[in-house]
Amino acid sequence: MDVTHIKLAIRHHIAEATKALHHPDLDDEAVHGARKDLKRARSGLRLLRPLDEAAYRRENARLRDAGRWLSGVRDDKVLLGMLAKLLERERKPKGRRLLERLMARLEKERQRDWRAVRTAKRRRELREVLGETAHRVDAWHAPHAHTPVPAAALKQLYRKGRKAFKRSRKLPSDERLHEARKQAKHLGHAVELLTDGKPPGRAKRVLKRASAVGDWLGEDHDLAVVEARFAHLPAAPAKPKQKLERRLEKRRARLQKKALKVARKLYRPRTRRVLQAAA
Hints:
Elements: H1 3-21, H2 28-47, H3 53-89, H4 93-117, H5 120-138, H6 149-170, H7 174-194, H8 201-231, H9 238-266, H10 269-278
Helix pairs in contact: 1-2, 1-5, 2-3, 2-7, 3-4, 3-5, 3-8, 6-7, 6-10, 7-8, 8-9
């Protein structure tokens, strides 16, 4: 796929995000779809990064901030779903009360976040930001018709992802695991965009592995957020709190083990050759 087609893909995803966000009945499904389109638009930007580093940083930051404006309602929903599952399995009354308290706080935060997202001012700001970014990216100039821009960008994505996972294996902190997850997602989205959603055999395996790693570490990150919420819950009984935290830690350890195992295959040398062919 050449630079022109990548630009078209970016504009398409920005247009779809804009359309979803300005629907009269803005709901969880619309926000989820908009965030996915914004992420794919940012993946397209990464494939054009070699054209103009400064412009890439500017427009990527604008799309990133637009996504962050929407992240509150999404995060609230995911965390509430996780807490509901924990509540189903919790039999101790003290543990159930602890979970119910946290869910009640999250429900209030969710209502507040929805009010902010649905304001006319916020929607207008989002529309302006997305429209300006689409226009600016379209004006980026490739010095030559066959400049190997996507190949250079994919090589950089691969290197950054491999480095992130090496750091995560050495010290699996929340911050490092979250960065590793983001890099795997970036690589998967880039391959998906370059192959127009129809990757051939080997590229399909790369995409599948990147998706699995991203999903497992995504759940791990959400559990880390739940843990942090427990830690800041005032006047919480120590014993049920510790029990729930241990349960979360066990689940996180399993997710991290699976993700890092698949990541070894995702970032092995053979993957570089597959990416070169995809570009």
